[in-house]
Amino acid sequence: DARVTQTPRDKVTEMGQEVTMRCQPILGHNTVFWYRQTMMQGLELLAYFRNRAPLDDSGMPKDRFSAEMPDATLATLKIQPSEPRDSAVYFCASGLEGEKYNEQFFGPGTRLTVL
Amino acid sequence: GENVEQHPSTLSVQEGDSAVIKCTYSDSASNYFPWYKQELGKRPQLIIDIRSNVGEKKDQRIAVTLNKTAKHFSLHITETQPEDSAVYFCAARSSGGSNYKLTFGKGTLLTVNP
């Protein structure tokens, strides 16, 4: 049963520190999404990759957030410097894109707490 | 861009009753509407979806209806059970260009009381 994996599962850090979250999409999937989940805003799309190329990062604060896919098996989301308002659960999802394929498969999430 | 509104934000029902969650969307080009269930501390998981060329879809106790003219869609859960308690998210995907991203509603916390 293939699943999206994310590390770390929990991260507590001090304000100003760099945070890197990692995601391994399901093998063969060609799209990767990063979401941020908070009570107030729900699930917000931060970044969207297809075939490792960034397609949409309009939801991401560009001054401190960056997202990359160094290879097809790894996606990273980096925050530098982190701030308390970044505290949230960050989900990665992957899918096989096209009209025929629709489902996004979510990873378990990284719970980030910035003190 | 797409905007998805979801109501109610919380819903409490007695076991065995039905539950209905409603969503509206703004982009008439949207053609795919999934529903995700998220249990406490877990990942969202797809439970049912519908495409714009279909008006209704059913899978055991859950069903989804779509009204393209009014731009709204609903999730219906019948004979609710305590394990149905979770947050439910609706979403819409536009068919514009090659963009396949989903826009999610803010979620409905469903509580099924035994």
Present the secondary structure layout.
The complex is a heterodimer of chains A (about 120) and B (about 110).
Chain A: E1 5-7, E2 10-13, E3 19-24, E4 31-38, E5 42-50, E6 53-56, E7 65-71, E8 74-79, E9 88-95, E10 105-106, E11 110-114
Parallel strand pairs in A: 2-11
Antiparallel strand pairs in A: 1-3, 3-8, 4-5, 4-9, 5-6, 7-8, 9-10, 9-11
Chain B: E1 4-7, E2 10-14, E3 19-25, E4 30-38, E5 45-51, E6 56-59, E7 62-67, E8 72-77, E9 86-94, E10 102-104, E11 108-113
Parallel strand pairs in B: 2-11
Antiparallel strand pairs in B: 1-3, 3-8, 4-5, 4-9, 6-7, 7-8, 9-10, 9-11
Walk me through the structure:
The complex is a heterodimer of chains A (115) and B (114). Chain A has 115 residues and is mainly β. Chain A is built from no helices and eleven strands. Chain A starts with a strand and ends with a strand. The model of chain A has no long low-confidence stretch (mean pLDDT 93). Chain B is built from no helices and eleven strands. At the A-B interface, strand 5 of A face strand 4, strand 5 and strand 10 of B.
